[in-house]
Amino acid sequence: MTSIAERLALWAEELAPTEEDLALARRSLHDTVAVTLAAREDPLVPLVAPLPEEARWAALAHVLSFDDVHMPSTSHVSAVCVPAVLATGGDARAYLGAAGVMARLGTALGWAHYTSGWHATCTAGAPAAAAGAALALGLGPEGVAAAMALAVPAAGGVRNAFGTSAKPLQVGFAAAAGVRAARLVAAGADADPTALDQWLALVGGDAAAVECAGPAVPGGLAIKLFPCCYSLQRPIGAVRRLLAEEPLAAPVERVRVTTLTSTVGPLISHRPTSGAEGRLSMEYALAATLLDQAPGFGSFTDAAVGRPAAAALMDRTEVRLVEGGGGLLDGETRLSVELADGTRREAVLDLPPGAPGRPPTAADLATKLAACGADVPGLVGDLDWSGAAALLRAALPAGAAG
User: Is residue 152 domain-shared with residue 260, that is, in the same domain?
Assistant: First the structure.
């Protein structure tokens, strides 16, 4: 029986991208380069300076929690796959092969894999990065399969890293592991492709769920419009919907949000004290949206999280969880805001802006790109894969101190 790695490698090698696939790749390239450049002054920059470029780029693509998400696998596909492909001279087709492998492996790992404590971006990311790098290096289907198998020892990452620098760093490690594996295969290393099958079983995946049919990235990718955890995009959208209907006429007395338990899995911080914790806090995201209307980078600094007004709103916020769900976008978010004058305002939202079922508009994307790097020549406008690699190398050289 053909191994999973061999089936995925042959699929990736024979991939003939559609116009829709190529449009997704173009958007992913722009989005990922933008969020990476947005982090060029982050404190993580000097920490990742000794790492290879694919690891630096992947860690910085993830550190601001602004990178895209594949909902069926609960993984940040492009933060891993774009850097791995750029570092090895690949193009849109290599990216789509990597992204498709990651989406399929992540979906086979399933929601139970994520809820048991694994960080699927890293577990599925290392073999996917290997596939993308091997495609970029022209290793053929046997080389792609061997590279995926050789990346298995590094295919790990845990959710206990959330809220610390370990979270983006382990995303960088996944990208580096894949590139390292592909380069070793190119140099003559071999590996048993069935290692991927064994790994998938060990971490609770379902081999029968690895399906090679469909578009390059089944389910598409969700684009974040606010720089924080994807679990917060819908609650933020609900507050913004409420505010768009009519400005609040009195001070807020009480905020209540109701959602399924599965939708808040990553939200581990309830009284954040730092920007990193604020990106993982339902209470703070609601407060920041009420205060800032459209939460941006400035909303998720340590100083912003420490605002007395934000603390007061968090104290007045109640999160009501309804048991159930099997993903971050299951069900809907219900928001209720009670005002000092006795009135109550409510909003309900099923899909946040930027979700695959509610894709970002051209204006949404332009606003995001401008916020991330309007001052970086070459980011806004046409950007190809070789130009993107050159742009990142110039803006984030090895050893840069931010």
Answer: no
Task: Please name which of 226, 229, 214, 220 lies closest in space to residue 269, comparing C-alpha atoms.
Answer: 229
Whether residue 82 is found in the same domain as residue 215: yes
Give the residue from 227, 336, 223 showing the smallest Cα distance to 280. 227
DSSP string, 52-88: -HHHHHHHHHHHTS-S-BBGGGTB-HHHHHHHHHHHT
Looking at 315, 330, 349, the residue that finishes a domain is 349
Q: Which helix (H) or strand (E) holds 259?
A: strand 252-260
**What is the average per-residue pLDDT within 229-242?**
96
Same domain, 216 and 241: no
Domain co-membership, 14 together with 99: yes
Q: Give residue 315's domain range.
A: 230-349
Strand order in the sheet with 333-339: 317-322, 252-260, 333-339, 344-349
Bigger pLDDT: 377 vs 248: 248
| pLDDT greater at residue 388 or residue 379 | 388
Enter the tokens of residue 352.
């946040």
Instruction: Sort strands 344-349 and 317-322 into parallel, antiparallel or unpaired.
Output: unpaired
What pLDDT, in 10s, does the model give residues 278-312? 999 999 999 999 999 999 999 999 999 999 999 99
Q: Are residues 55 and 200 in the same domain?
A: yes
The pTM for the full model equals 0.94
Number of domains forming the structure of the chain: 2
Contact 60, 54 (CB under 8 A): no
d(Cα 352, Cα 332) in Å, to the nearest integer? 10
Half-sphere exposure for 342 (CA within 13 Å, toward CB):
0
Q: What percent of the chain has pLDDT over 90?
A: 92
Q: Is residue 402 part of a domain?
A: no
Whether residue 149 sits in one domain with residue 27: yes
Distance (Å, whole) CA 352 – CA 237: 6
Calculate the dihedral angle through the C-alpha atoms of 254, 277, 30, 171, rounding to the nearest 10 degrees: -140
